[in-house]
Amino acid sequence: MAVVALAAWAGGRHPLTLLGRSWDSAWYLGIAAHGYGRTLSFRPDVVHSDLAFFPLYPGLVRVLTAVTPLSGAGAGLLVSWTAAGVAAAGIYAVGARLHGRTVATALVLLWGLLPHSVVLSMAYTEPVLTAFAAWSLYALLAGNWLWAGALAALAGLSRPNGFAVAAAVLVAAVCEAHRRRGRVAPRVWAGAALAPLGWLGYVLWVGLRTGDPLGGYFGVQRLWGSRFDFGRGSLRFVRAMLARGDRFVFPMALMIVAVAVVLFALLLLDRAPLPLLAYTGVLLLIAVGGSGFFESKPRFLLPAFPLLLPLARALVRTARARPWHASVVVAALAGLSFGYGAYLVVFAGTPL
Questions:
Q1: Residue 80, by phi and psi: left (phi above 0), alpha (psi -120 to 50) or beta?
Q2: Torsion angle, alpha carbons of 171, 173, 176, 178, to 10
Q3: Which of 344, 336, 264, 349 is nearest to 115 (CA)?
Q4: CA atoms of 119 and 299, how far apart (whole Å)
Q5: Residue 217 and residue 203: Cα distance in Å, rounded?
Q6: How many Å apart are CA 191 and CA 175, to the nearest integer?
Q7: What angle do CA 70, 72, 74 make, to 5 degrees?
Q8: Is 90 exceeded by the pLDDT of residue 344?
Q9: Alpha carbon distance 13, 9 (integer Å)
Q10: How many H helices and E strands in the chain?
Q11: pLDDT at residue 244, as a whole number
């Protein structure tokens, strides 16, 4: 945040305005202040409706502005910063349960130093989704099915790709039933039933509001240019980018998505627990298979913290054998994260 503030002041901008009212933040603050109903028409096939944005985050902002003297942007930043802290604690808990406290610390460190981690300091929903996802996955690993399902339902109310948390709970429940030959406690099925309710509830509400109960939400997303087409749109964009060259943001996004695919392969080879594989796999599938807003794909992958488990374990091994080597790696990651994050927020002029 200090680097962003210095860059903003150097560019004649106000850092809190950039962090609290940039791009999608303005949509969320509008929903918090006035409810749903805003639409911007650019062309007949490009219509941006605020129904594309899930309700949990603006609902939290609205509650805060009602009970505190904070402005909408201030409340949005408070929600995001608090959620980022809760998410970090959840990521640590997952890492510590699987590989011990040292790896857990490295996992949180790497997550905080991702190239797009500046989004965790902005009035965006990724910190909220990651907080609910991390603690839902921890509850799954601990066998607390009702908590896992309830937290997954809240994750599904925060973002479209929040369904990945419900997918993890459902996959884990099916595997548990298979392992025990159907003789599972009622709480397993209760957790599985709870998990998708948040996501399904909002999608159905948008469908009823638009007159198409099953397809209305997806129609809203198509008019934003977002659809799932098994990666065809992404491939067309990459071909065009490579053919003509483009700004720094797009090649960087391409590299980050490619690294994420490699990290998922490493996670598979490490035989990570199935809930983590299901959750991360769905997030990666949505990011890679969806078209539209290619530059935002690294942001969509911010909640996919299990991808960093192989790197966290490698960093710990390096730190034990060659501490200075690990220090250089962490310093380089920090430099990239701070510099690129400030560039994205202050200078890039590209939707995050």
A1: alpha
A2: -70
A3: 336
A4: 7
A5: 6
A6: 14
A7: 55
A8: no
A9: 5
A10: 18, 4
A11: 58
What are the DSSP calls for 275-289, one per residue? Answer: HHHHHHHHHHHHHHH
The encoded tokens of residue 93 equal: 């808990």
pTM value is: 0.91
Tens digit of each residue's pLDDT (9 = 90 or more) over 18-48 = 898 888 899 999 999 999 988 888 777 777 8
User: 43 - beta bridge partners?
Assistant: 46
Is the per-residue pLDDT at 332 higher than 70?
yes
Average pLDDT, whole number, for the chain?
90
3-state SS, residue 291: strand
335 CB-near residues (< 8 Å, 6+ apart):
none
- Determine the 3-state secondary structure of 183 from DSSP: coil
Compute the Cα dihedral for 318, 319, 324, 326 and give only its sign.
Answer: positive
Per-domain residue ranges of the chain: 2-347
Helical residues (DSSP H) of 45-124, grouped into ranges: 56-67, 72-99, 101-112
Q: Is 49 helix (H, G, I), strand (E, B) or coil?
A: strand
Closest CA to 302 of 343, 344, 251, 260: 260
Within 13 A of 83's CA, how many CA atoms are on the CB side?
A: 29
Question: Using one digit for the tens of pLDDT, what is the confidence trace for 75-90?
Answer: 999 999 999 999 999 9
